[in-house]
Write a structure and sequence with these properties.
This protein is mostly helical. About 70% of the residues lie in helices and about 0% in strands. The protein contains 13 helices and no strands.
Length: about 280
């Protein structure tokens, strides 16, 4: 086999593998869209293109539980989770990435270790904390609980990025009389755009999709987020699940995330690889 044929063969194998990966990741969402356009017995028939698309499932989602309020709750909780996470992570990353003190590496390892605990392991203790703060069935309680998931990741990524910023920039800011806060906001943050966009978007997605804390710390329909609202969709009886409505609700809450990822995909890649290679 000639080198040209070998190159063509490897290229063909590469494209086949890429096609398999795309099919594996995209097909479940495509099937959810197809199922959301079916009703009745048509849901149990294998049709890759619905012969008679029905939009009744999307209408029924908003006619039952206050689904629009659940979407608004998810937006509010995810937004404030991202804002607080980025604020705390930026200040913490400056201390951990630019200031030398004893125990810095230990603190970073502890931060990383916190993210390794499963949610169920901290559920009981967090429940007691939220109840003591009188935040049960409150969106503020969800924001507080979500910080346990998002803050370790944002601190770790931003610290890695902060370490790679040129030291000369900080020295020049100090010579000009800038305070640490001015150095962070006016010197470093403009350079941390890709990292902030990456960590913020991934934290938003994580908070948007969270289920266990939202199920445990909310009680009424008006304070639940969309993952819990979708899980509690029921049919005419408790033994009947309206799969068409569930699929329609899943599509509604997934499309915005896909759009955000497509818009910021380049910043996500550049942000995740920013601290990998020293330039």
């Amino acid at each position: 086999m000639t080198p040209k044929m070998q190159k063509r063969l490897w290229r063909t194998i590469f494209y086949v593998l890429v096609a398999i990966m795309i099919f594996y990741t995209v097909f479940p969402f495509y099937w959810a869209i197809v199922s959301s356009l079916k009703s009745g017995s048509a849901l149990f028939q294998v049709d890759f293109v619905p012969p008679d698309p029905a939009w009744d499932n999307y209408v029924a989602v908003f006619q039952g539980a206050p689904f629009e309020q659940n979407i608004l709750n998810s937006v509010i909780v995810s937004f404030f989770t991202v804002v607080i996470s980025l604020f705390l992570a930026v200040t913490a990353s400056y201390a951990l990435g630019r200031i030398y003190f004893r125990g810095r590496s230990t603190i970073l390892l502890v931060v990383l270790g916190v993210s390794m605990f499963p949610q169920v392991a901290v559920l009981s203790g967090l429940f007691e904390l939220i109840r003591a703060l009188n935040l049960y069935n409150n969106l503020a309680g969800l924001v507080l609980s979500y910080l346990i998931m998002t803050l370790p990741f944002t601190v770790w990524v931003l610290t890695t990025f902060m370490r790679e910023l040129p030291k000369e920039l900080e020295e020049a800011a100090i010579v000009d009389g800038a305070s640490p806060w001015q150095t962070i906001t006016q010197v470093f943050m403009p350079l941390m755009g890709p990292a902030l966009a990456t960590t913020g978007l991934l934290a938003f997605i994580q908070a948007w999709n969270e289920f266990l804390f939202a199920l445990t710390f909310t009680l009424s329909d008006t304070t639940r987020t969309v993952p819990v609202a979708i899980a509690l969709i029921t049919g005419a009886s408790q033994f009947e699940l309206p799969w068409g409505n569930i699929m329609a609700a899943s599509v509604i809450v997934t499309v915005p995330l896909i759009v955000l990822v497509l818009i910021f995909q380049r910043k996500i890649v550049s942000g995740l690889t920013a601290g990998a290679v020293k330039g």
